What we know:
Blueprint: E1 6-10, H1 19-22, E2 37-41, E3 45-50, E4 53-58, H2 59-64, E5 72-73, E6 78-79, E7 94-98, E8 101-105, E9 111-115, H3 116-121, H4 124-127, E10 130-137, H5 140-146, E11 151-152, H6 153-158, H7 160-173, E12 175-179, H8 185-193, E13 198-199, E14 207-209, E15 225-228, E16 240-249, E17 255-259, H9 260-270, H10 272-280, E18 283-291, E19 294-302, E20 305-307, E21 314-317, H11 332-349, E22 356-358, E23 365-369, E24 373-377, E25 383-391, H12 393-402
Bound molecules: fe (ii) ion.
Amino acid sequence: MFGTLRGLVRAAPGHRLPRALRESRTSRRYASARASATLRLLEDCLELCQDGAPRRFSYVWLRDHCRSASSYDPATHQRRLDTASVQLTIRPSSAAVDDGLLTLTWPGGHVSQYSLGWLAENSYEWKKQAAVQPRVLWSAGVYESTDVPSAKWDKFMSCDDELKKFLRNYLLYGIAFVDGVPATVEATESVTQRVSLIRETTYGRMWSFTSDFSRGDSAYSQLALDRHTDTSYFQEPCGIQVFHCLKHEGTGGRTLLVDGFHAVETLRRRSPGKFELLARVPIGHEYIENTGSHRNHMVAIGPVLNTYPWNNELYLIRYNNYDRSVINTAPHDTVQRWYKAHRELTAELRRPENELWVKLNPGKVIFIDNWRVLHGRESFSGLRQLCGCYLTRDDVLSTARCLGLQA
Ligand SMILES: [Fe+2]
């Protein structure tokens, strides 16, 4: 499946960006909008054939997706039609294709028009082979040799083009950096708010911590942390993680980054059955905290891998061996196979060539796609002060779309 998804590309030094990220979504309209098309009204659907590719649309879907002013608001893309008022057996009384437009007349006289390009782009046949999110999958060597530029604080805060370049890199690679940020919690908050809303969690809005064991989570120690995704014990894990190292007087403490999707796609190609198992078997994650005034008990249940059902595209990896709780959601024989699949994924995630090590110095803020890129850290000595926050995924992607990026 990996090889057939448009836009899911492997990186190479000097690569060009996927087209969807070089052009806006609007300008990426179906190229053959005015190409000749043939039309057939079948018993239960309309078949439109363009460039030799037949695409089928059910009649009730066509009426429900009428783009006329009485049925649809083109400014907000919201529906005005009451779908429940449409007979499920509805069928057009006439149909014609002319000048790139399909025109349907319905019983009662209502007329619907659709551009052929819009129909092609919104057909199931198109959607099932199109990537929702074009990405560049990376190993450490690929990422380093690509030399992805960091955004610069001043320009980032004032120039939409700089923000757009930053988000383009973030969408492609799952990580992006801003350099030159003042080493304060306030400046870190400002730089994140340039991108999106902050997601407040039990750890606060902006968190700032030293290795003082003030909270129960292992992050609040000096210990090394193996690669993981955060908040796996939230039913919807936090979308984006932001880190800023404000101070470190000591040694060690480098940040580990691993492209989880790169590892998973390798697993999918080599062992599709194991991929399916990890995408199907639900696993619990849990976190209990009883520290000072903090009382928390978080539980989430979901598969390690989440894919869109219509195209099997991966959109979320939930991988945290610290927080994985009792597996009691599958029979023993499935569990045995699940462990084999999980072990193979772990081996892939632990390949040294997949480990990107970064030293976060004061001034360098990193944004991590917590649904894709795993993070960890090496142990450290001395005083280390880190701050950061989580961002709401929906709002980050919304910002990207408003800037004309596919997200
Ligand atoms: Fe973490």
